[in-house]
Amino acid sequence: MKGNILWLIAALFFVAQSSHAQEDEVSFEMNLSKEKLGINERLRVEFTMNKDGDNFSPPPFEGFKVVMGPSQSISSSWVNGKRSFSKTYSYILVPSARGNFTINQATIEIDGNTYKTLPKTVEVTAAVDKPNDQKTVDDVADESLHLVAEVSKGNPYLNEAVTVIYKLYVSPNISVTNYRPLDNPKYNNFWSQEIPVTKHTAQNGTYEGKPYRYVVLKRVVLYPQKAGQLEIEPLSLEIFVDVPTNRRDFFGGRIYTQTSKTVSAGRRTINVKQLPESGKPANFGGAVGDFDFSVTASKTQLNASESLQAVVEVSGKGNLKLFQLPEPELPSSLEVYEPEYEENIQTYTSGMEGKVSNNYTIVPSFRGKYPIPSISFSYFNPNTQRYVTLNSDEINIEVLEGPMNTSTGNAVGTLSNQKLVVPTGKQFHFIKLSPNLSPIGVNYFFGSNTFYLLMFVPLLLIPIAIFSFKKREAIARDVEGNKVKQANKLAKKYLSTAKKELGNKEAFYVALEKGLHNYLKAKLKIETSEFSKEKITSVLLDKKVDANDVEGFIALLKSCEMARYSPFSDVQMQKDYDTASEVISNLDKQL
């Protein structure tokens, strides 16, 4: 009896292990629609796997011509807690000659292992009268749908606009009812701006020499932030279509069947050229495009304590959001406030157009003349492949009324320039013998209230002075606290524009991203717009910055990228703003 129980336990254990092994077993098979066909028939070949894999490599299909494929379909479901997965690559072949042909092995990598299908032989005979392999609904949909990514430039310069237009080509034989995105590209190493498509209007065109209708589904303007080979990830969509069948209804009309197909635009690679070093101006700040530059003042004559506006403006076409405006050199005797940044930019398929400006409020305190020297702005024009430097006009500010600056002015009316005035009339008078004088009251200072007040007030001020001195000394010794205060001021400075745009998703995240890059540029003296997130991470870690703060900074940059095509709430924007203030403060204390 005991032996039977042990045998039963061992059998159950063996069955459980076998079942587990079967669940984890990988299958990769090739299935043919038929093994014998006429030369005027079509052959459908499917490669099916029960686990997702990479680097699929089909056989060469010797003796056949591929008329469609590969088309990809995925099926995944959960039944009683068990996952069922199937992925299939399908091809439609037509034979090119009669005879026996072998379809060799296909390969794929799954979990680091390479799997192969078994070869199969197909016999091709003479043409048959009635081919029995009429196109299926899926075959028609595969042949009639094509998603294409058209790239405006394959070899742009760094920070030069590249436009990607996604077009869906549809054969006149079918009609599209709806679609949904399955996988949106992330556009890594690009600054991206999507141009909304408000209306999907079908237009006539050709695809591979055949008449098609096409619809523009998506338009994106990219500015590469890194030189070298950059990859544009594919856009994948699930398309719902109505496909005609060979059946007809009671009134003779064609019966349509609805199906869905997954289409992909495929990966595109562009070669981004580095900006030339030859002829690069010393003040070049990364502007690429075709621009105009000016510095203007709202008035050139005013009185002291009045204000004027000095505007530094760049307008034209190019990467307007990705460079810093030059700063004017103003006399130290003028009171200058932090500039207000303004932008008026529209994004078209050719890139960004518009203008950006810094508006400086200036208040003179003294009378005099104050020149605002000419400043220069440099940019690279990709059309002419040359650097251009523009210089502003010199502006002279004249303060008409107000106090003189005693540090520079001279006293007016010295004694050496004055003349003695001699009175006219009688120059001598007799002394009065009766002056009519009257006695005044005697007022003793000692013992008065003023005497005691002046004597005891200094004694009371001594402890107050000692307390104030110790307080200031404690504040001076609090190095960490002073760093925190300074860091908080710095965070407010770089995030002031982003704070004004809270609630406006696009403007907020553009300002936030620019503020983060400007902070690193100011602290590390580097052009972070030319760096990838990995490079920024490496630089900060080399500076001994805490890994958590580095991770928070990179997470903010990712949020700025994600915000361009994802819905973000006001709560999320406020959270990102608070996080940015904290991260900049932490970085500043460490840098």
Write a compact overview of the structure shown.
This protein is of the alpha+beta class and 591 residues long. It has nine helices and 30 strands. Helix 4 crosses helix 9 and helix 7 runs antiparallel to helix 8.
Which runs of at least 5 residues are low in confidence (pLDDT < 50)? 13-23, 408-429
* Portion in beta strands: 35-45%
Q: Could you tell me the mean pLDDT?
A: 80
**CATH architecture descriptor of the largest domain:** Sandwich
Largest sheet: 5 strands, antiparallel
Kindly provide the radius of gyration, computed on alpha-carbon positions and rounded to a whole number of angstroms.
40 Å
**Count the strands?**
30
> Could you say which overall geometry the principal axes of the C-alpha atoms support?
elongated
Q: Mind explaining what this structure looks like?
A:
The structure is a single chain. This protein has 9 helices and 30 strands. The chain is 25% helix and 38% strand. Strands 11, 12, 14, 15 and 16 form a 5-stranded antiparallel sheet that branches. Strands 21, 23, 24, 25 and 26 form a 5-stranded antiparallel sheet that branches. The relative contact order is 0.07. The model is unreliable at 13-23 and 408-429 (pLDDT under 50). Helix 6 (505-524) runs antiparallel to helix 8 and helix 7 runs antiparallel to helix 8 (547-562). With 591 residues, it is of the alpha+beta class. It has 4 domains: 23-133, Immunoglobulin-like (Sandwich); 140-272, Immunoglobulin-like; 289-399, Immunoglobulin-like; 480-590, no CATH class. It has helices at 2-24, 137-144, 449-477, 479-494, 496-500, 505-524, 533-542, 547-562, 570-590, and strands at 28-32, 36-38, 43-49, 54-57, 64-79, 82-95, 99-103, 107-110, 113-116, 120-125, 145-151, 162-170, 175-183, 190-195, 203-207, 210-224, 228-232, 236-248, 254-264, 268-272, 289-297, 301-302, 308-318, 334-336, 340-348, 351-364, 368-372, 376-381, 386-391, 395-399. This is BatD family protein. Residues 1-21 form the signal peptide. InterPro entries: BatD. Pfam families: BatD.
